[in-house]
Amino acid sequence: NVYQYATQTSTPLSAIRVSSDRFSPPKHLHYNPAEHVALLHSPFGGGTYCLVPLPKGQGAQPNPGVMGNGLAAVFVARNRFAFLDRSQQIVVKGFSNEETKRLSSPLPNTTMLFPASTGTVLLRNDDKVCLFDIQQRKILGEVA
Predict the structure, then answer these.
(1) Could you report the per-residue pLDDT of 9-67, keeping only the tens digit for each?
(2) In sequence order, which residues have a C-beta less than 8 Å from that of residue 131 and are 6 or more positions away?
(3) In what helix (H) or strand (E) does residue 60 lie, and over which residues does it extend?
(4) Which of 13, 19, 101, 140 is the most exposed place for a label (fewest CB within 10 A)?
């Protein structure tokens, strides 16, 4: 919502309307200020993400978002996001939900994906966390 102090009114920017059986309330929210989009993720029911383009002005119509299944989802570039699928692969997609890259996770039994700097993600399993470069496909560092 956008709150106007002068008029003391609140105007919704965007609404997510999805069926309740596919997307439960989100647990994670990531915002991309360059492209003005939000990435919501709900880990319930095997995990679901929703990429929501936010309207760029007052009165603009909200665009419908794109959805998919994944254990975790984060932005990796200005116009790309990555998610961890059920088969432990990192999938990189564009904002129109087209797949651009699919990589096997270098960390066995990866349970979570966290945002890092551009082109990298943090991967977590039960024993350690590692910084993984998606372009070079190599681990840059790890903490056990």
Answers:
(1) 887 766 655 544 555 778 889 999 889 899 988 888 788 898 988 877 665 566 667 88
(2) 116, 120, 121, 122, 139, 140, 141, 142
(3) none
(4) 19
